[in-house]
């Protein structure tokens, strides 16, 4: 009876904390991000120039973007379209209960899992769609010119006006994707790309059956001693993503593998072995590989000597981003301008979207009137309408860097290029990580990369990972 009572108290406590986090992270804040006209902007290997005859700064927020597009020869619009096309995965609420817990939301604890999802999603987009692909409806997404709203306010406001909008025969929910699809005569290539676009998003749905959904990642994390509600660090998430890809059963995913560096070392033969493993019986095609390298950019704070290296990494076309952030908050870093990182923020609580239904909404727009004004309010989305920036100085030193290589030749080229970058940036210090010829088993101090997660950490390390926001690495 006492144990039952304790369980009930824990459930009530869990629900209270979830309710608080849902309220805390449901605000849609009207913020603006400014970019310099005189410095290039890098986004996952793509470079954009906003330079004009005028000096000053550009805002990437909503209507300001439209004004800028008229002044500059398309580059701001191209950057905006490219950024919005990246898949944005945030906190969600009201999804199916996570096995072994009473949680139906990841607000307040799942941000690193979300940034890990975004990095993996970018790798899959490179694999199935290519770096040049952009979402045709990207520019249909616009930030609201209204005041700050919460997700709950949006739903209540929409419900209150549903009857009147129906009476006027105006749809209360308009899917920009469907409108755009109906207006466009898509060719076969566009249709194929849209199928993969939706399929990739569906793999990250918040349901137990989704290959890389929160539920599946938490199951994989249990082998690292983690449970739902724990804070997950960038290194742990790297191994969780590897395990989730290994266990994925969708035939489309059999051509992709994930390799996680050990002790800041990438063993080339281990990577190539993964790429050359049989995809299925009777086939010997090589697999594409997503390489994840957990590193520390300093001790308690980021060492500013590493800034140029991080910039160089984000300038590479095969970079799929960085799982990083600032202390206690994880962000998905996708680019930079000058000494500021460009990122997507998972700390916004959106409602659960059932991605198992046909033509699930990619971006739902609610139309409602308030005091005789029509407002357009975005309730849920898988694409971020505007970028955010953060100074390198605020970056937490613990992070995981990701790369995508389609073939063995691509991997060899990437390792050569990154090695040169590591040597030039390391000066007289040891490099952040290294590429080594041969297998990990060839070195006495290294262990097999095929170990399970429960063997990756000692019991003491598991306890530390539960207590602290960043992992401890050996600094050479």
How would you describe this protein?
This protein is α+β, with helices and mostly antiparallel strands. 36% of the residues lie in helices and 20% in strands. It is built from 14 helices and 20 strands. The chain has helices at 2-24, 63-71, 75-85, 111-128, 151-167, 176-183, 188-203, 214-221, 234-247, 268-276, 307-314, 408-426, 453-456, 459-467; strands at residues 27-28, 34-36, 41-43, 46-48, 57-59, 92-93, 149-150, 173-175, 256-260, 265-267, 288-296, 319-326, 329-337, 340-344, 350-351, 363-370, 373-381, 388-391, 398-405, 434-436. Strands 3, 4, 9, 11, 12, 13, 14, 18 and 19 form a 9-stranded mixed β-sheet that branches. The protein has a 3-stranded antiparallel β-sheet with strand order 8-16-17. It is globular, with a radius of gyration of 23 Å. The N and C termini lie far apart (53 Å). Residues 25-30, 62-74, 143-154, 156-183, 367-372, 446-458 and 463-476 have low confidence and may be disordered.
